[in-house]
Amino acid sequence: MRLLIVEDDPVVGKALRQGFAEANLECQWVRDGERGLELAKSQKFDVIVLDLLLPRRSGLEVLKEMRSAGILTPVLLLTALGTVEERVAGLTAGADDYIVKPFAFPELMARLQAVCRRSVTRPSPTLEVGDLCLNLASRRLTRGNKEINLSPTEFSLIEFLMRHAGQVVTRKMLCEAIWYADWEGMTNVVEVNINRLRSKLDRGFEKSAIETIRGRGYVIRP
Predict the structure, then answer these.
(1) What is the pLDDT of residue 182?
(2) In sequence order, what are the beta bridge partners of 26?
(3) 10 Å Cβ neighbour count for 95?
(4) Which element (helix H / strand E) includes 79?
(5) Exposure string (b/e) for 40-58, b if CB count within 10 Å is 16 or more?
(6) N or C: which end of the chain has fewer CB within 10 A?
(7) Torsion angle of alpha carbons 147, 148, 154, 158, nearest 10°?
(8) Interatomic CA distance for residues 100 and 87, integer angstroms
């Protein structure tokens, strides 16, 4: 499993990260709702552990926007109060399960595994923009009737661009989302990878799938 932890409490966040690491699970931890939403939209996770009380954006807001964007990643909510109203609001918004703080780590692991088992029966989520269709489960991209083989980096690039269809994506956004690095000095890396991706996407087609906006970045038009 690859997990995203969105939790602002440093004690809880560190404990979760350590517990998942000891269970040989890959995880990423962020401390505010805005950053959590950005990662949920731009990267693929098997499950998201989402606190409800977060700075910048609440967990409920993050969850609602994820579901409205078609992101079906299983979500387990962390709640401090665990009132009936709070649980109902979270489940209604699209959460798959919840656990009340304080909790035992073995129970959290059991709930995560159950959530992932249930998610296997869901239809494969796809992104469609124009004649591009990206299956996030099988990691297959097609343009029209043509299947396009992608490297992991190219897959991450096209997924990010398609999730932001119609929006100009800057080099800084790509560097932070895909390479986790400051964009200064990495401009050439972005351009090289975009050019490789574009050559695969456009082979056999008259119109380029990725438009370059001079001085700003790149965009895929709906």
Answers:
(1) 59
(2) 2
(3) 23
(4) strand 75-79
(5) bbbbbbbbbbbbbebeebe
(6) C
(7) -50
(8) 10
What is the C-alpha separation between 115 and 15, in angstroms, rounded? 21
Q: What residue type is assigned to position 33 of the chain?
A: G
pLDDT for res 124: 55
Secondary structure class of 185 (helix, strand, coil): coil
Per-residue pLDDT of 74-116, as tens digits, reads: 999 998 866 777 777 888 888 888 888 888 999 999 988 888 8
- What is the secondary structure of 86-121 as a DSSP string? HHHHHHHHT-SEEEESS--HHHHHHHHHHHHHHHTT
Beta strands in 7-71 (DSSP E): 26-30, 47-51
- Alpha helices (H) in 128-179, listed in sequence order: 152-163, 171-174
Average pLDDT, whole number, for the chain? 86
Q: Which of 115, 109, 103 is nearest to 79 (CA)?
A: 103
Distances (CA, A) of 22 to 5, 25, 105: 15, 7, 12
159 touches 178 (CB < 8 A)? no
Residue 166, phi-psi category: left (phi > 0), alpha (psi -120 to 50), beta (remainder): left
Q: Could you give phi then psi for residue 108, rounded to 5 degrees?
A: -60, -45
Q: For residue 129, what is the DSSP state?
A: E
Q: Using N-to-C axis directions, what is the helix angle for 187-202 and 152-163, rounded to 10°? A: 90
Q: The tokens 């959590």 sit on which residue?
A: 36
